[in-house]
Design goal:
alpha+beta; 4-stranded mixed sheet; 1 helix; 11 strands; disordered C terminus; DUF1036; DUF1036 domain-containing protein; signal
Length: about 160
């Protein structure tokens, strides 16, 4: 009799397991949703991108991400920890740029720079970054379009940062 009871328990568990998997699937899928800061290059040209943000240790600027035409790259992986992010990008082929009024430091080659003051005195260049207010969303996407400027005036992407859910 005891073995018959064990068999019924196993059958019950075997029938219950697929139901539990179906109920748990949405929870697993929700936890796999990506939260990050992405930049999409809607041009046909290679673009170099730098980002600035406020960390616990102070201001940080990082670059260069090279984004091929018609592709996207994740600059910050995981849920965003700041409300404001700053972006500067250059068209590597045509020489235009997507910039803004916020002055931060960049370097000629790959960089991660602490602080945004005395750029030139510290051996860096100064660049104007565009501010993006993420509204404290967990993820954000900026799309760069065919509107870079060549004379340094601010260029606003056709699609400012959008919540990418």
């Amino acid at each position: 009799m005891a073995s018959a009871g064990r068999q019924r328990t196993r059958k019950g568990l075997a029938l219950l397991l697929p139901l539990l998997v179906l109920l748990a699937a949405p929870l697993v899928m929700a936890s796999e949703a990506r939260a990050d800061f992405r930049v999409c290059n809607a041009t046909q040209n290679l673009v170099g991108v730098g980002i600035g943000y406020r960390a616990k240790s102070g201001w940080i600027t990082e670059g260069w991400w090279h984004i091929e035409g018609s592709t996207c790259k994740t600059l910050i992986e995981g849920p965003l920890s700041s409300r404001f992010y700053y972006l500067y990008a250059e068209d590597a082929e045509r020489g235009g740029r997507w910039d803004g009024p916020i002055s931060m430091c960049v370097a000629e080659k790959e960089f991660k720079i602490a602080g945004v003051t005395d750029c030139v005195a510290r051996g860096f260049q100064r660049a104007g970054f565009q501010e993006y207010d993420t509204g404290e969303q967990a993820s954000w996407m900026v799309q760069l379009t065919e509107q870079p400027t060549t004379e340094g005036a601010p260029a606003t992407p056709a699609s400012n940062g959008q919540n990418s859910q």
